[in-house]
Amino acid sequence: MLHNLKIYILFLIFLLPSLALSQSQSAPSIDLDSPYNTMFVHLYYLQADSYQPELAAKTIQGLDSLSAIEAAIELKQVLDGKGLYIHLNLLPQQNDYLDSISQQPFYTPFPKELPAVYLEKTNGKWYFSNETIKKIPGLHKKVYPFGTDFIVNLIPGGGQQRFLGLAFWQYLSIAILLLFAWLFNQIVSTVIRPLIKKGLKRFLDEGDKSKQLVLSIARFVSLILITYLVRLLLPIVQLPIGMAKVSVLALNVVLTVFFVLLALRILDLIMTFFGRYARQTNHKMDEQLIPIIRRAFWFLFVIGGLVQVLRLLDVNVTALIAGISIGGLALALAAQDTVKNLIGSLMIFIDQPFQIDDYIEWGGMAGTVVEVGFRTTRIKTSDTSIIAVPNGTIANNAVTNKGMRTYRLFNGILGLKYNTSQEAIRFYIKGLHGILDKHPAILQENKYVHLTALADSSISVTYKAYIDLKNFESELQIKEDLLMAFMALAEKLKIEFAFPSSSIYVEMTPDKPIPTTTKVELEGNYATILHSYLERLSFDSGEKEA
């Protein structure tokens, strides 16, 4: 915190070169014939170098001389305390000035900051309005709270020696203010930070990151309170108006920055908490959603803080936003694909057609989902390459999510040679049923093995079954074991698989008879061979996954 106090001290020293309002014009005549003359008279005769409050009180009517002087001084202190700088060259100088909204002879110098303070024309002269005079004491107490208005009234108005635009008592006030800020920081460190830590205990975990975030949150809360306190008590120093304006503006900007940084730290803490919760769920997409939400809110907080800073700097935010909107529309038209990808990412997170580590197929491509980003989805292909696919492309295509399959399909067609006997085929089909029945990972419902076709070059046996597994690697292993068992059974039964071919049959000629097919001799009958094979068959890799 000493480092922060050093920053405050350097900031105040930087402001010491006089930014005070020292009008170079000669003493104004007390005509009060325009808002310009009335405001000039009020400000000029309350400056340190031309301090004549009885002349400044001429702008107040309806009060005795002492009360008018007190009201004029307090009004000047309100303007100085709030850092409201009067640009004399912008004040209306015509006697018949009318307010543009009410069309009445009123003039409000600061319609946003002090709408209750305005001038009105009475009997051809401009004075501070009766409503303004009534509200001056309340405004003064608001600008100088906690009884500090009494201290301000004890401060002499003029005739003091100054160095770099400030009197000795003002330097002393700055030193006391910094000391008070340091003491307040010690109180905050002792009381507020433990309360914040206790209040945010539910968001903490055993790691150092959450604890550091809580300490950072407490630090920014402390800085905000100290800065607000300095901002609240700064009017007591009675800085020259130019210096007061810059100081108030700087403190308001600093407060805005601290609030944005505090919001970002709280956002990090909340995202850490939800990230811990997301890791406990079965939906891996939740973990990908956390950083995207964090970036979106981070962007909103930063933009909101920037808009507030621009507003404090008197930038026309409405016109700026309108200009940005038009530019944004043109940019959106020029970058339709980017906008489409952003919308596509939103649709993916809302619909959740797949999760992280799911194997998906789309548009002739396939791979495992690695990460879903704000613009692209990263997919690992079979050769371990990473493809960054625009989310708009995925959102507009049919996606086959094999990672969400309840069961894995195991099907195919076995082509047997035409010289295979019907008895061998029947026992082979029976044996295929036995193999599927014996494997523990095969779902026993909805499975079948049948002779389905007499194809051009083979006798077709179709099989279909479901594997009760969620893992692709295990699925491949089980399919391998089953196909090897199918081949081993065919070898035992002396059955050969056909391959696509064309046969030419020549009718018998006188000198060459048609050759006869050699009969395959078995070592035993089909039933014995099949029973013996199934008895010895076992699957070590067929354990079901939970």
Describe this structure in words.
- The protein is of the alpha+beta class.
- It folds into four domains: 21-164, no CATH class; 186-231 and 239-315, no CATH class; 355-403, Roll (SH3 type barrels), CATH 2.30.30; 406-536, Alpha-Beta Plaits.
- It contains 16 helices and 13 strands.
- The strands form four sheets. The protein has a five-stranded antiparallel β-sheet. A three-stranded antiparallel β-sheet has the order 1-2-3. Strands 11-13-12 form a three-stranded antiparallel β-sheet.
- Strand 7 and strand 8 form a beta hairpin.
- Helix 4 (65-81) packs across helix 5 (130-143), helix 9 packs antiparallel against helix 10 (285-312) and helix 14 (422-438) packs parallel to helix 16 (526-536).
- It is rod-shaped.
Brief rundown of the structure:
With 546 residues, the protein is an alpha+beta fold. It folds into four domains: 21-164, no CATH class; 186-231 and 239-315, no CATH class; 355-403, Roll (SH3 type barrels), CATH 2.30.30.60; 406-536, Alpha-Beta Plaits. The protein is built from 16 helices and 13 strands.
